[in-house]
Design a protein that fits this description.
Layout lengths: L1 E7 L2 E7 L8 H8 L9 E6 L8 E7 L9 H13 L6 E5 L8 E7 L2 E14 L5 H5 L16 E5 L3 E6 L3 H5 L3 H14 L2 E9 L2 E8 L4 E3 L3 H15 L4 E5 L6 E7 L14 H8 L18 H10 L4 H7 L27 H6 L3 E11 L1 E7 L4
Parallel strand pairs: 2-3, 4-5, 9-10, 11-13
Antiparallel strand pairs: 1-2, 1-16, 3-4, 5-6, 6-7, 7-8, 7-15, 8-9, 10-11, 11-12, 13-14, 14-15
Length: 380
């Protein structure tokens, strides 16, 4: 068997294609993805035939532990590049996720080493009403920042796979996760069966994040769907830019943007292909309302931010997140987000997923992918 090893944004994947439409490659994934006894990768992707002229192929995606996943943002870009370069699909094409799982059509575009992917509409965005008691009680909360223990800061969103997202005020929490923080993320991952993201908005169009991924069971170098989830929460909840540079632990930036869904629009959105322009202008954009940097705590910086966003109706939200809300002042409600009803407890998660509602925006990823090796294995 020949496997192609790809890298994208800090993630690495092994890819192959087959004429068989059915198969179970869980054992193969565990064997070849092992970083000591195998080739080493975050996941395995099998491209399979699909009987529809509008769909180039279907895929079967496996995490390194052999578990299946419906979507992986960075893997979707690698799959697109692989399929185009091996003559399996044109530059612009669509593929479908594995038919035994949630059906989803992914639209992709290949332009040299730059590949764009449309992950489609998000699902089920809501704020948490509570954190699992075992996650708090099991750990010594004295070693955890209070912001992590505030359920109102946590949001659940599905961008192909479920994610929890929490924006924090300290970049060190994202870049240098302590043992206590990582253990806390692990407990949340188990309780919600979701990936867990900590994010820090350095600017309105620059977000740092770290993702604890199920299937890997650790903080990974990058996670495309986690970046998508973080961008959407940042934009819809906190008023950050709809187009941003996301920086994972790998340091390899990825450009993302979200757009309102309009039937009949361009498959890759109106901003596709703007990567060079985006990179050139990203550093020139001003700081957003939720620039959580410590410099914003100065008495001179805060009023300018409040004034800048006053007309947009964000003053109360800004004051709250900068810690300026007075004790006597009535607390402002959480920013409005799409909701399927009352804020759910943990018991409602499965029911919500079984009756999923789709949001009103699509999210897009664009960046470089590289084929770094072609590997002959003893597996067949």
């Amino acid at each position: 068997m020949t496997l192609y090893k790809y890298c994208a944004n800090g993630n690495d994947f092994l890819l192959f294609h087959t004429l068989f439409t059915q198969g179970d490659y869980a054992d193969l994934a565990r064997a070849v993805c092992d970083r000591h006894s195998g080739i080493g990768a975050d996941g395995l992707v099998a491209l399979l035939p699909f009987s529809d002229d509008g769909i180039a192929y279907q895929w079967d995606f496996y995490n390194a532990d052999g578990s299946r996943a419906n979507m992986c943002g960075n893997a979707s870009r690698c799959a697109a590049h692989y399929a185009y370069n091996l003559g399996l699909a044109p530059r612009d094409h669509s593929f479908i996720t594995h038919s035994s799982m949630q059906a989803q059509v992914i639209k992709v575009r290949v332009n040299g080493q730059i590949v764009s992917s449309n992950l489609g509409l998000y699902r089920n965005l809501f704020a948490l009403s509570a954190l699992p008691s075992n996650a708090v009680q099991k750990l010594d909360s004295t070693y955890l920042p209070t912001s992590l223990l505030d359920a109102a800061r946590w949001f659940y969103i599905d961008t192909g796979v479920p994610h929890l997202v929490c924006f924090v005020q300290d970049l060190a929490l994202v870049r240098e996760s302590s043992a206590a923080t990582k253990a806390f993320m692990q407990e949340l991952r188990k309780s919600f069966n979701a990936n867990v993201n900590l994010a820090y908005a350095k600017h309105s169009d620059e977000i740092y994040l770290a993702t604890y991924e199920r299937g890997v069971e650790d903080i990974t170098l990058a996670c495309g769907t986690g970046m998508a989830a973080t961008l959407l929460v940042g934009y819809k909840v906190y008023g950050l830019e709809s187009s941003a540079s996301l920086v994972p632990p790998s340091g390899d930036r990825l450009r993302l943007w979200c757009e309102p869904f309009v039937k009949g629009d361009s498959a890759l959105g109106s901003h596709s292909g703007d990567l060079a322009k985006f990179r050139a202008t990203a550093d020139l954009k001003s700081c957003s309302t939720l620039n959580f940097a410590k410099s914003l705590t100065s008495n001179t910086a805060i009023p300018r931010i409040l004034e800048k966003h006053k007309q947009a109706g964000r003053e109360k939200s800004c004051r709250k997140h900068l810690g300026l809300e007075s004790q006597s002042e009535e607390k402002s409600p959480m920013p409005k987000v799409d909701s399927s009803g009352k804020l759910p407890t943990l018991a409602h998660i499965n029911e919500l997923e079984s009756k999923a509602y789709s949001g009103d925006m699509e999210v897009f990823l664009e960046g470089e992918v590289r084929c770094v090796a072609v590997c002959q294995t003893c597996y067949d």
